[in-house]
Amino acid sequence: MAESPKSKSQGPGSKAVVLRRAALTSQLSTFNYFLGLDLGGTSIKAVAVTASGAKLRQRSVPFVDRDMEWAKKIRALVRAWRRELGEPAGIGLSAPGLAAKDARSIGVMPGRLLGLERLDWTDYLDSPRPIPVLNDAHAALLGEVWRGAARGLRDVMLFTLGTGVGGAAMVDGHLLRGAIGRAGHLGHVTVDWNGPRDDFNTAGSLEHFMGNKYIRERTAGRFASTHELVAAAERGDAEAKVIWERSVRALGCSIGSLINVLDPAAVIIGGGIARAGAALFGPLERAVRHHEWQAGGHQAKILRAELGDYAGAYGSAANALGFNPAKG
């Protein structure tokens, strides 16, 4: 009697593969992992990590900001990883805006991501454990302290240079949040009190001098991005060089002044504009030293962020597992 095709496919080798897959699935389903989610303006960054920060999964999911597509895609991603890895030991989430006092939602986020305000993520994702929610810049700093450029530090500031200028600060191991969650908005310090007001009602803010959203305004329409401005300055364009140097001086003045206020051991620079490399960090170092109070010859370190676009996701995972630099 001829052997059926089904019988042929189930030889000893096939059974071994099935058994190995079953064992792996069983192992993953009981694996103690944490899920970090970071909601951005156009994409969701997600990481699944162990308690020590070892990466199991990493993914970026684009979305269009309409009909809460971002929320639906986050829920679909979490469901998929639950099937693959089992229920996580904890889930953390970060997003733009001010986190609510109970840390279960974003309390204030006007203008975009309609539906984000007061969305309770613990309920929305059907989590058996509370899902702590952080502001995105706060999460990015926590991520860098946990697994990035600021590992081991308890006093540190972060500047993210991109469309705007975001920031966060940690003092004595405590992430500064403030009375309503505004603490750490370092891009909204005033550099020129006679300057125009930004979206946060700050006159002549650092964001006006360095944020990509104002590049056309401060270059009289010559450049569409800061990367174009830097490239022109490096080619020897005299006007571009003047504008870029002014931007870097504004950043250096702000950093130096805040070093004098918060006394960090290091300042972490991240975001897309940080990719300018030496064209940014060389003149920035000089500008910071010009304004920094170097008591006893001490200088705060200026470091480039290490976690890139996933800093917020790592910070959210760290927040979920209860990472607390204040406890050493």
Keywords, separated by commas or semicolons:
328 residues, alpha/beta, Nucleotidyltransferase, domain 5, 2 domains, five-stranded mixed beta sheet, 11 helices, 37% helix, 19% strand, globular, disordered N terminus
CATH class of the largest domain: Alpha Beta
How many structural domains in the coordinates?
Answer: 2
Through-space gap between termini: 72 Å
What percent of the residues sit in helical stretches (DSSP H or I)? 25-40%
Q: Tell me the structural class.
A: alpha/beta
Coarse morphology: globular
**DSSP summary: helix tally:** 11
CATH architecture of the largest domain: 2-Layer Sandwich
Question: Number of DSSP strands?
Answer: 12
Biggest sheet features: 5 strands, mixed
Give the percentage of residues in beta strands.
Answer: 15-25%
Catalogue the unreliable spans: 1-10, 17-30
Radius of gyration: 23 Å
Task: Spell out the CATH superfamily of the largest domain.
Answer: ATPase, nucleotide binding domain
Order of helices and strands: HHEEEHEEEHEHEEEHHHHEHEH
* Strand neighbour order, sheet with most strands: 3-2-1-4-7
CATH topology of the largest domain: Nucleotidyltransferase, domain 5
Arithmetic mean of pLDDT: 91
